[in-house]
């Protein structure tokens, strides 16, 4: 488990943070806005943007400066993710899944593993993600069947992962396996491995999706795939379940930030449209029915942002923050869904046209309720933590 110090981040000068936000904003205006519609509609991998993200240091955003990363605190990271997601959520997944993999190595890896992998992760030379889910095991991660059997100085891995973000375009994954399938309780037999693509590691099918286009979601197949035993994160078997779910705290803050971005972006589009569209001789923003919607949307977006920053601040202080991250993820993702739906209604019939952007927000927002723990599970985690912190 993470100790209080494990995830404590360095603080950032407000001016330094603002300069970074300005650079992100300029990049969005210059490079993202002109290509988002075409890429999303054609489900096209944004190769040029990925190169620019690497140049800006986004693949090392939360990785420590000693490894060549930016070492940003979770608060700055959440603000950056929200800003990008308010224009195109899907591209934040390209560096977020990668950073969750890096986070697992940085928090739980050996000194040798950190020195070997983190500089390459930070530069974007090696990009990847987190491979946990299997066809029979999503929420119930302990039910995974992928096995890693020790053979001398190597592990031999067999199994199939599904729905893995960056599965095609990434080249390395934090892979959750069973090193002792008979262990009881089941989590004691689970380990997390650094798995670069190689012989025996192939990509299966690419999923066609409702939204979250342009980032690939794929099946990964392991058939007698061999990796050095040195790739076992932390060097000790049986820690994988906690290592994988420990990284999810940052993952949940990230999904919350994406929800904030989608909720704020949906609000921005509705606000613009409501002032331009006229009915009965006045802008629809002056009709009470639309005012009620905008009033609710702006409140919801603001509340989502504050909950997300609250969780990120707790993370930066090095505190255990599964309650705060869970609340932020749950609320912000639901806010994204509600705001995008309300923005669709403000747009009337034009919301249903691919010539307008709002339909993408609606499609993309629904994923936020599933990733990094479904919202059903989130509420159970929130409740359990709340009761634990408030013993009778
Ligand atoms: C676009 C996309 C990208 C993804 N990217 C990744 C990735 O990069 N890496 C990765 O490992 N996975 C990834 N996933 C998988 C994702 O994490 C899982 O889909 C998610 O964990 C839910 O698992 P499941 O789909 O198997 O649903 P299930 O676990 O089968 O759940 C089905 C329903 O039952 C509910 N449920 C299940 N168990 C309980 C319970 N005990 N109590 C109450 N309700 C319960 C769930 O909340 C849900 O409503 C991705 C999924 C998608 C759609």
TrEMBL record:
Sorted UniProt keywords: FAD, Flavoprotein, Oxidoreductase
All copies of the Acyl-CoA oxidase/dehydrogenase middle domain together span: 130-224
Domain Acyl-CoA dehydrogenase/oxidase C-terminal: start-end pairs: 238-385
Q: Which residues form the Acyl-CoA dehydrogenase/oxidase N-terminal domain?
A: 15-125
Fetch the InterPro entries from UniProt: Acyl-CoA_DH_CS, Acyl-CoA_Oxase/DH_mid-dom, Acyl-CoA_Oxase/DH_mid-dom_sf, AcylCo_DH-like_C, AcylCo_DH/oxidase_C, AcylCoA_DH/ox_N, AcylCoA_DH/ox_N_sf, AcylCoA_DH/oxidase_NM_dom_sf
Q: Which cofactor does it need?
A: FAD
Extract the Pfam families matched here: Acyl-CoA_dh_1 (PF00441), Acyl-CoA_dh_M (PF02770), Acyl-CoA_dh_N (PF02771)
Family statement: Belongs to the acyl-CoA dehydrogenase family.
Q: What is this protein called?
A: Acyl-CoA dehydrogenase family protein
- Write down the species: Parasphingorhabdus cellanae
